[in-house]
Amino acid sequence: MDWNLRACGRHGHETYQPLETDLAERLHAETAAGDAWRCLRCGDFVLGEPRRSGPADDAPVLLRGRALRDATVLRLLAAERGLRGVVIALLAFAVYDLRSSQATLNQWFAEKLPALRVTADAFNWNIDDSSMVHTIRSVLNAKSSTLNLVALGLAAYALLQIIEGVGLWLLKRWGEYFAVVATSLFIPFEVHEILKKVTWLRVGAFIINVGAVLYLLWSKRLFGIGGGREAYEAARHSAALIEVEQSAMTKPGPPAHVGSPEPDAG
Ligand SMILES: [Zn+2]
Questions:
Q1: Ligand 1 centroid – CA 30 distance (Å)
Q2: In whole angstroms, how far apart are CA 106 and each of 51, 111, 138, 184?
Q3: Distance, CA 145 to ligand 1 centroid (Å)?
Q4: How far, in Å, CA of 190 to CA of 182, rounded?
């Protein structure tokens, strides 16, 4: 799958005319149909005026190749986090809201239970031993303060998921660190849950979360892994087409003048 072409198909080609004429020549072609400029993302020559122009140093550093693939994966993860955050926030609200309708619901449940019991008996299902009925009973009889605590816990968890989702979606480095730390914190709890009872949902969530942590650590070089942020930015820049062309121009022969290396922007 060509991630570059896919992105160009969605957002259009990113052609750029650098002010430096020798560099511009390398990114320009004259065709029978007119001028064509090289797309900085997919590398194809595209007919028509360049989308942007300016000094080479101001050329956009586009997500290309591997960085683009990583961005797509992170945004999928961000969408999953965001969706989970919204569902849990709704649940938090439902628990908070339950306090006011607890008495009514309790009464309704008590009224319906005998009818339910008759139906269940027909299927040889002892409803009074059912864990679902136990859970409903204990929730309906829970103290208001307990429900408040549960709602608060759920709301905090929802907020965590939403912050994670936003940070990952915006492709921010803080978002990646936040996601790794927040996700790791819950992994021991997830292991504990799986040891209690193995369900597809639990195993699935566990695999996604462990995978996400490893993927972030490795692909984003967090916590100094593989050279850390500097190495990550360097790799991104070395993949930038305009910088590839620049270095191709300067490579042949020894440098004409001895200049100090570019100051490290940090
Ligand atoms: Zn393109």
A1: 18
A2: 65, 9, 10, 38
A3: 58
A4: 13
Buried b / exposed e over 68-107, threshold 16 CB at 10 Å, is bbbbeebeebbebbbebbeebbebbeebbebbeebeeeee
How far is ligand 1, taken at its centre, from the CA of residue 43, in Å?
A: 6
Centroid of ligand 1 to alpha carbon of 9 (angstroms): 8
Q: 185 burial class (0-12, 13-18, 19+ CB within 10 angstroms)? A: exposed
Q: Taking residues 1-17, report their average pLDDT.
A: 88
Full-model pTM: 0.69
How far, in Å, CA of 203 to CA of 191, rounded?
9
Residue 135: which residues within 8 A CB-CB, separation 6 or more?
none
Q: Position of tokens 């440098």?
A: 255
CA distances from 95 to 142, 146, 235 (A): 11, 10, 48
**40 Cα: distance to centroid of ligand 1 (angstroms):** 7
186-209: average pLDDT: 90
Listing DSSP states for 184-201 in one string gives HHHHHHHHHHHHH---HH
